[in-house]
Structure formats: C-alpha cells, structure tokens
C-alpha cells in the first residue's frame, strides 16, 4: 500500500517537474505514455481473465458431456431400456449440451479447431 502511494506521488511530482522545466508538450507525451502503459496492463489483465473463463466453460462442457454419456449408459441397461423418465432426462441433457456448445462457440476467443490443436500439443508435451 505504501509503495503504491509513493509511486503515485512520484508520478505526480515528476509530471509537474517535467511540465515546469520543459513545457507542456513533453508533459502531454509523459501523460500519454502513462495512459498507454495503464491500458496495456488493463488489457493484459482482461485477456487473462477471459482465458480463465474459457477454461471454466470448457470444463463445464466436459462435465456435461460426461453426464450425458453416463445417462446414455444407464438408459441402455436392460432394466431401464424404454423408461420415459430416463428418455426425457437424456433428451434434456442433449439439449443442454447443444446450448452450451452454442455459447462456447459464441464466446470463445479461440476457434474450436485451434483449441483442439492446442490440447493435442499440450498432451504431447505432457507425455514427454
């Protein structure tokens, strides 16, 4: 906290000194550099958060796909084959997976083909 305060005071004093010694043009240049640096940091932070959200959505999608496969395996058992409740549950799960795929395609910053390539590269690196 103290470091932030010292940094802010230093930036303000340096900007005032720069403006009084060299004039207004270098002052605006100094301000523009500070704004660009701040925006770059903010964009980097947003991209990192977007990556986290994308990973979470992928994990949720994998979880629902696993649930769908499990329900399908239960539905195919002799004891439950043809059960209307399980059939409706299976259809509902399939519909949810389709909706989540649409959301993933809509909000994912990386196309699915590139994502699969990245996953394959990650698996290859883990195997080594």
| Gap from first CA to last CA | 44 Å
Q: What is the N-to-C order of secondary-structure elements (H for helix, E for strand)?
A: HHHH
Can you count the beta strands? 0
Mean pLDDT: 80
Q: What is the 3D form? A: rod-shaped
Task: Explain what you see.
This protein is an all-alpha fold. The protein contains 4 helices and no strands. The radius of gyration is 27 Å and the shape is rod-shaped.
Write a concise synopsis of the structure shown.
This protein has four helices and no strands.
Write the layout of secondary structure elements.
Blueprint lengths: L1 H21 L1 H52 L8 H24 L4 H16 L1
Helix pairs in contact: 1-2, 2-3
Question: Any descriptors?
Answer:
4 helices; mainly alpha; 0% strand; 128 residues
